[in-house]
C-alpha cells in the first residue's frame, strides 16, 4: 500500500537522550515466505504500553513495502498509519494489542548485506546493529526483549536447511504448493539484533558436547557444499570454547543446539545470534593446505568470541547502542584470555599492543575519536571500532589487574546474578565489579567517558639511596578538561650493570602526577608497563645503553620486544640508519639472529620488521620517506652481516610437522622472519631459495611466507609464484584472497596492473566484501609506499573505489576510508592531496556511514 521514501536524515543521536521504550513487545511471531525478490514477512506482535502516556506506536521500518496492518484482527485504513523516513507510525490507541504487519522485502537487491540477503544462493540475515527493521517494522532497539517464534516457508528441495534461533518445533510440507514450512522457537527473550534465519543447501558437520551439568548439546556447523573437510578446526575450537567458559567463569550453554553457518558474503567477522551464529566463511574454513597459522588462530578466536557472547551479550545485553562496549570490550577480553590459555600469552599481548598502537591510537588521535562508550552517533555501524572493542577490552583488563583474578570473577558472578535476562549499561557492569569487591571504582570509570590516548611522561632520578620514577599523565591537546585516569603500571627494576632483578611490582597512578620510590643502593633502571599493563603512550628518554640492557634482560618478554620497538621508532625519527640509534638497533638485531638459543616464538617477533603504522605512531608529523627508508635500510644492514648464518639456520631447520600447535607455529613463524630478512640481501640465489621454499612448502603458512618475502625482490618472482598458486588452488576463494593481498602489497608502479589483473579473474566478485578487502583493503593498509605516493595516485585510486563501493555497500566503504581520516598527521603536500579527496567526496551523495566520517574529518 505504502512505499517508503528512505531518506533518513544524517542526524546524530546522543547517549544523554536515552529514554525507555514507550511500548514493549513481549512476543513476536514471524511468518516468512522466502522469495528472492518478493519475500513476504508477516509479523504478529503482542504490543503493550510501557508506562502511562498517549504516544502513538512508532516502529523502526526500512522495508520495501508495508502491505497491511491489523490491530486485534481489524485492518487499518491508510489514514491510520504513516510510513516515512524510516518510521512506521500507527495512529490508533491501545493499552495492549495484537499487532499484525505484513511487509515485503527484496533480498536479492540487498547489496548492503544488512537485514535479509542472499549469499551465493543462500538466504541469511545480519541484524546487528539496526538490520532487523529491514526485515520487519519493529522496536529495533536492544532494550526491547521479545520471545520469538519463526515460521519460514520455502522450497525444501532448493533449501534443505531452513534455520532460525532456538529449537525446531514443527515442520510440514504443503502438498498443494509443494512448499515446506519450518517453525522455530527461542525460549530466551532477546533483542531484535540477535534474530537470525537461514535457508540454503549446505554440508553439515555434527558433533555433541556434554555440558558440566551433564546436558547434551548438539553442535552443528553448516558450510557450502564440498567444504565439509574444512570445518574440523572450527568444531574443535567450539568445543574448547564451551569447556573453557565453564572452567574459567562457570558459564554453561543454555539451549539444546548450537548452530554455526558459514557464508561467503559477510561484512564483518561473525555474528553471535542466539543459538545460530552466522560467520564469514573465512573464520570457519581451514585446513593446512589452504589456511595459514594466522587463519587457524583467527578461526579459533572468532569462534570463541561469538560463543562467549552467549553470556556476555545475549543473556545480559546492552540497554542502548552507546553501551556496545559492555558486550564487545568484555567479550574481546574473554576471547583474549582464552587465546592466551590455548597458545602463547606473550604473543597474544604483542598482538594486542600492535592493534592498540597502530590502529586504536590512530583512531583516538583522529576525527572519529570517541570514548569506549560513545556519546554521539550518526551511523551505529561506524562504531564497531578498535576503540569500542580493543580499548574496551584493555579497560576490562585493567579492572582485572586492579581486582585480581578472583576479585574479577566475583564481579562477573555478581554481574550475572543481578542482570541475567536484562539490557544494561556499562555503569551496571562497573558497579557489579565494585560492589563484589567493596571497592570504589568511580574514578576508574572515567575510562568510559574520556576519549584520547593518555600520554605518560616518565622521569627518573636517584638521590642517595632513593630511586624515584615520576609519572605525569595528559592527553595531547585536551589539557584543560582532562581528568586523571587510573593507570596500573606493572614494573620491574633491574641493576643497570648486571641486568639482575632488584624488585618487581605494580604501581597504580591515580592522579595527574605520581611517584614510585624505590630504596636501593644499586644503580638501577625500570622496565615499565610489563605485559602492556595500560593502553597508554610512553614519553621517556632512555640512554641507548639502558634500552639495550632492557632488551637483553627484562623478565617479561613483552617488554624486551617493546623496547626493541622503541628503538626502531628512534631510528625512524632520526631518519638514518648509521646514527647511534641505528647502529644499536642493527647490533641488537644481529645478536638476535645469532642467538639461536632464544625462544623461537619470541625470536620470530623480535626479528619482525615493524609495520609502517607502528613506526608512524612515533611522529607528530608522519615522515613517510623516513619510515619507508628505515624499514628497508635496517634489515639490509642486518642481513649484510648475517646472511650466511640465516641461510645455514634455514637449511638446518628442516621440515616442521603440519599440525597446528604452539611449537610448530613458532617454528614456522621463525622461518618466515628469517626468510623475510634474507630477502633484503639481493642476488639470484635468494630468489631460488624462496622459490624452492614455495615449491616444497607442505602447508599454506610456508607458501605465504615465501610469497611475502618475495615482495622484496621485484615483481617477476612475485607474479610467477602468485600464478603458480592460482593454478594449484583455482576456484578457492579464501586462497584467492591471499593472492590478492600479496599482489596489492607490491611496492612498485606495477601494482596497479597487478590489481587490475587479479580483479579481472573469475574468482573476483566485486560484490563480495572479502574480495574487496583482500585486494583493495590490502593496498590501502599494507602498501604505504604506493598508497602514500606523492603523485597522489594511491589516494585517487581510493577515491574512485569509495564512490563505487559506497553506492552498494556503505559499511564496507566506511571501513576502507579509515586511512584517509588521519590526513592531518602528514606533510603539507599529502595533507592537500588527501583533503582534496575528502572535499570532493563531501560534495557527492554519500551513505550515512561515509557522510559521518567524511564530515567529521573535514569539521
Ligand atoms: N557483534 C558482532 C561481533 O563482534 C559484530 C557485529 C558487527 N555489526 C556491524 N554492523 N558492524 O561479534
Ligand atoms: Zn563481538
Tertiary shape: globular
Q: Report on the biggest sheet.
A: 9 strands, mixed
Structural class: alpha+beta
Helix content: 40-55%
- From the alpha carbons, calculate the radius of gyration and give it in angstroms: 28 Å
Number of helical elements: 26
Strand segment tally: 32
Poorly predicted spans? 1-7
Strand content: 15-25%
Roughly how many Å apart are the termini? 41 Å
Instruction: Give the names of the bound compounds.
Output: arginine, zinc ion
- What do the pLDDT scores average to? 97
Describe this structure in words.
Helix content is 41%, strand content 22%. The strands form 9 sheets. Strands 1, 3, 4, 6, 7, 10, 13, 15 and 16 form a 9-stranded mixed β-sheet that branches. A 5-stranded mixed β-sheet has the order 18-19-20-22-21, with helices on one face. By secondary structure, the protein is α+β, with helices and mostly antiparallel strands. The structure holds arginine and zinc ion (ZN). The site of arginine has 11 residues, from strand 21 and helix 2.
